[in-house]
Every structure is written in structure tokens, then in C-alpha cells.
Amino acid sequence: MTQVAASAGQVTAAEPSPARSIQVVMLATDLGPASAAATDHAIEITSRLEARLLVTSVVGPEGQKRDGPGRRIDQVRAGLEAGVQSIVQRARAAGTVATFLVWEGDPGEAIVNAAEAEDVDLIVVGSHGRGPVERFLLGSVSDFVVRHAGCPVLVVRTRATDR
């Protein structure tokens, strides 16, 4: 597995193996600030490579709690669908073929499973830039995806101004 990292303003990509080019790029997003830079990079990459963008978000237990007490799962899902559809429209405006998925479950596992089910060639995911103690206590979706995905993963750190 190839791991690739990028900082705000620059994209660093691994050379695809000759046996498999990058045709499908998954943007895994929670629609938060940490995903904004990842979204920009995913749209740029798919545009340059003439690849298809698959925008993916996950209704997880944390999302239901974060969105407030009493929110039904269908309300949370509808909010995510509206957000990812907005990203899809932005990508299409940039000339990229784009679609979306909203999965339910643990975010890390759902992203890895969706990537496998959709035969994704590259996953682009944002990172909150947590330190090692916070990562240990709170977990990290991007760390999980890097460790378990069957394809290369591009982790894009949050811009300093977004933190």
C-alpha cells in the first residue's frame, strides 16, 4: 500500500503502478473543516487525472450525538446527503464526473468497506491534525483508513487558518 501526504496548498501524489491507473477517487468527508482541504485536493486530482470522484460520508454514532439530541437517523442522513450533493455539484462544475454515497456505521470501517465495494483506486481523507494523545484517546478515522484500506490513501491536513 502506498501512503501519500499533502499539506495545504500542495498535492503530493504517488506514481500509480503501471498495472492499475487511478480511475476512481473516493473523497471521504464528514463535511467539517478538516474535510475542506481534502475536498479541494480530491476535485483537483480527479480533474487532472480525468478520474471519477466518489464523495462518501458516513452516518456514525458520533454524528448523531453531535447533531443534537432527538435527531432521527433519517434527518442526519438527509443533512449529509445535501452536503455531499453540494460537493458533487462543485466537482461537476470543474468538469469531473462525480457521484456520492452515504453509509451508516463506524466511519473508518465504513470508508474502507465502501472503497472496496466500489473498487476505488485512491482515497482522499482530511485530518484534524490531532496530536498522539488525542489520537489515542479519541481515535482517528484517517489513521484507521491508512492502516486498513486496500488502496493508496492521501491524507490532507487541515489548513492552519481552519484550525
Ranges with pLDDT <50 over ≥5 residues? none
Annotated CATH architecture: 3-Layer(aba) Sandwich
Give me the secondary-structure category: alpha/beta
Write down how many β-strands occur, each being a DSSP E stretch of 2 or more residues.
6
Shape: globular
CATH classification class: Alpha Beta
Helix content: 40-55%
End-to-end Cα distance: 29 Å
Number of discrete helical segments:
6
Instruction: Find the CATH superfamily.
Output: HUPs
Order of secondary-structure elements: EEHEHHEHEHHE
Strand content bin = 15-25%
Mean pLDDT: 81
CATH topology: Rossmann fold
Number of domains: 1
For the CA atoms, what is the radius of gyration? 15 Å
Largest sheet: 6 strands, parallel
Spatial order of the strands forming the largest sheet: 1-6-5-2-3-4
Quick rundown:
The chain has helices at 33-49, 61-66, 73-93, 107-117, 132-138, 141-148; strands spanning 3-6, 24-28, 52-59, 98-104, 122-127, 153-157. It is of the alpha/beta class and 163 residues long.
Tag the structure with descriptive keywords.
single chain, 163 residues, alpha/beta, Rossmann fold, six-stranded parallel β-sheet, 6 helices
